[in-house]
Write a structure and sequence with these properties.
CATH architecture of the largest domain: Orthogonal Bundle
Distance between the termini: 40 Å
Strand order of the largest sheet: 1-2
Helix content: 55-70%
Shape: elongated
CATH class of the largest domain: Mainly Alpha
Order of helices and strands: HHHEEHHHHH
CATH topology of the largest domain: Arc Repressor Mutant, subunit A
Radius of gyration: 22 Å
Number of domains: 2
């Protein structure tokens, strides 16, 4: 990938988006909306390109001969061409690595979503938890969650420092 995949936030380099589109068109001819939906599904909601990103990429792929378009009612159905397949084959490793990255990030996001849902389950579960744990322990856990929430976007070095603290705390708590 050469570091081109994701820069700041969730923006994908246009050449990488074009490769992903070709990869999807290789699987089946698609409308622009279907491509957006497929990228959303493959990334589990992490990367959902706007129509303003996808449609210009499709137009460009058509202009350079990597895709063709046919009218399909009021919509356009895009197909990969032989030249598009050749370009994709030359860059298959990048396309596969991007989809693998989508999968990894999507799985992490799924775990976070599940954890957040578990935290937000009914008041009965919270009441049960409070009866089992001391107020001090619950307050400490809430404070830790709040402190971590403010660090998700911090630089890598800071995240590594925090991870070290958490590992030491976990070892001390478990008595290792």
């Amino acid at each position: 990938m050469g570091g081109r995949a994701f820069g700041m936030g969730r923006k994908l380099a246009s050449v990488d988006l074009q490769l992903l589109i070709l990869r999807l068109l290789e699987e089946k001819p698609s409308h622009g909306y279907e491509i957006i939906k497929a990228l959303d599904e493959r990334s589990k909601g992490f990367y959902v390109p706007s129509p303003g990103m996808v449609y210009p990429a499709l137009t460009y792929l058509e202009e350079i001969g990597h895709a063709t378009v046919e009218p399909d009612g009021a919509r356009k159905l895009y197909h990969i061409t032989a030249a598009g397949k050749e370009h994709l084959e030359d860059n298959r490793g990048t396309a596969d690595a991007l989809f693998a990255q989508f999968g990894r990030v999507g799985e992490r996001m799924d775990r976070v979503r599940r954890a957040m849902r578990a935290e937000e389950t009914g008041e009965e579960a919270a009441a049960d938890q409070e009866r089992r744990g001391s107020k001090e322990l619950l307050r400490a856990r809430r404070d830790l969650k709040a402190a971590l929430a403010g660090k998700w976007d911090s630089p890598r070095e800071e995240q590594q420092r925090i991870a070290g603290i958490l590992k030491r705390a976990a070892a001390e708590i478990s008595g290792e």
